[in-house]
Write a structure and sequence with these properties.
Largest sheet: 3 strands, mixed
Number of strands: 7
Number of helices: 8
Radius of gyration: 19 Å
Strand content: 5-15%
Length: 243
Amino acid sequence: MYSHQLHYLPLPPIVYAALLGALVALFVLIQIGVLSYAYGRIGLSSTSATLLLLASLLGGYVNIPIAHFASERVVPQEVIDFFGRRYVVPMVVDWPGMILAVNVGGAVIPFFLSLFLLARNRIWIVGAVATAIVALVVHLLARIVPGVGISVPIVAPPLLSAGLALLLSRDHAAPVAYVSGSLGTLIGADLLNLDKMREIGTPIASLGGAGTFDGIFVTGILAVLIASLPLRRKPSNISHAPQ
């Protein structure tokens, strides 16, 4: 009945344009050789990684409904400021409760891409450890924003996941950063707060949507940057016999 209201930008258009510009600039720098992207460090070519991040950005507009709470109080607002960011939420008149949805760009694509990177790079254990740490920290930082959802500071997931990745697995820092930053944010901010979703009072509560989408997307860009960094090589232990 209200399917046309399900799809909206979780961020202002100018923020979307900035994220798109950052993605394009990153891809151009890699292509002209300023950044030496290493395929083996993440498991995806630079083109594939860019296209997936672009799909994630475009997919932020699409929400897939998974549950409907008909008796919830709704607080329709158009723009809300929190953590220094402005969130755009749909204006709704006579909305019959709250719809719980999953954002394609902020949850669906990052989830399946994370599973691929975990399997492709065989980083199940280190990925789980890093994800658990990010989830815990993000959960402590997460705040309920009435009329929007669950919000976390945009810089927290990318910086924390990058630091953990470089510390725990330098050889696979890029995929560990993406997996822990994406899944850790989704788990810590959204899944661990599912019991509070019905108290938010928003027409649509989207997992991976407003409040967490930008942090997850920036994590993806940061993972590509890490894949472009030179890594220290361990000195060889092979000794050469004197001739």
